[in-house]
């Protein structure tokens, strides 16, 4: 998209994320993070800011336990690699079905949807094109680098740059697999706030880009 669009995208997306984070932070939503406990490196880690782990370590020290907390340091390199591999394989198995569905939908949209239809739905003549684009990225589970070929095809089909940017932000932030994984960590209310924030950022940045770069690209 060129240096100008790239710099503008990075700047606006970063500023939007910071502002959104500051606003959401004022609502004190820490209580909507699930108390998930993960065993890693022989230690139990909780999503409570580390208080559980610190308290446990302090209690062990106070009790004079010489064996507590030494499991991770006593493990061999081979055992560490094996544990990491098992964790990665477990994560892959959990996400594989959603990745497959997302890639299939993305390939279908990319290869089978006529340009005329895209123009009708997401072209400059539709005032709802940017919100639709921000939501349309949800079924597609690919990284930003994987989004770029699709984004390029959309711009080649005449879709405005801001609408494409909204699509990229939505696809990167609220893909269905991402939301399913975040659901394991966030309560539903916090998950809804997160998704709404991402969509709002996508729409805002998209509209801004369509205004700034109208007729320039």
UniProtKB/TrEMBL annotation:
It comes from the Archaea. Keywords: Cell membrane, Membrane, Transmembrane, Transmembrane helix. The keyword Membrane applies. It is found in: Cell membrane. It is a multi-pass membrane protein. GO terms for cellular component: plasma membrane. The chain crosses the membrane at residues 7-27, 98-118, 130-151, 157-181, 193-216. PANTHER family: PERMEASE, PERMEASE RV2963-RELATED. Belongs to the UPF0718 family. This is Predicted permease.
